[in-house]
Amino acid sequence: METNAPRYQWGQREEAAADLFNDGSYPEHPYDALLVPCGEEGEVVQVGRHTDSGTVVYMVEFPLNRVVGCVEQELAPRQSNGGAQ
Prior knowledge:
This protein has no helices and seven strands. It is mainly β. The chain has a single domain (13-77), classed as SH3 type barrels (Roll). The strands form two sheets. A five-stranded antiparallel β-sheet has the order 6-5-4-1-7, with no helix packed on it. It has a two-stranded antiparallel sheet with strand order 2-3.
């Protein structure tokens, strides 16, 4: 069991690195329905670990108050607009 430090922290804004689909966590949506499209920006609201594997899991709040559990491979640093106004 690997226990590396989390890459992202509470309050950081990240974006989905891939399309995120319903794994059954949202019973009001069909299984495998698209919940978050790739590139959608969200905020890390909790960081934890999967009990059995020790994998870091991030709870990320995306638009529409949709909180989705993500692993590091499903997130990417938010792309900056370079300070453009």
